[in-house]
């Protein structure tokens, strides 16, 4: 056996041992998932500054992620505009 084969065999053996131990560990009752409480607003904060719920925070994060995804797609959308002038920009880059 090569060293790599021995390492893979050891990992497989460890995985099998963990698989046999898993049913005993899963016998415990599963507690329900709860959302954390929101912190109290500081005195003098505007009314709309504090989110009303954890779901609202999630929706704001989701909206921000969607904006970031749109920004990541911008080069693909600009490709048809850049393609006609790309040979000139490549040439200008070669002159430096």
- Shape designation: flat
Number of helices: 4
The secondary-structure class comes to: mainly alpha
Number of strands: 0
Instruction: Give the strand content.
Output: under 5%
Distance linking N and C termini: 56 Å
Helix-strand pattern, N to C? HHHH
Q: Mean pLDDT, as a whole number?
A: 76
* Spatial extent as radius of gyration: 28 Å
**Residues in helices, as a percent range:** 55-70%
Q: Could you describe the largest sheet, including whether it forms a barrel?
A: none
Considering the chains and any ligands shown, give keywords for the structure.
96 residues; mainly alpha; 62% helix; 0% strand
Structure explained in plain terms:
- There is one protein chain.
- The protein is mostly helical.
- It is 62% helix and 0% strand.
- The protein has 4 helices and no strands.
- The longest helix has 23 residues.
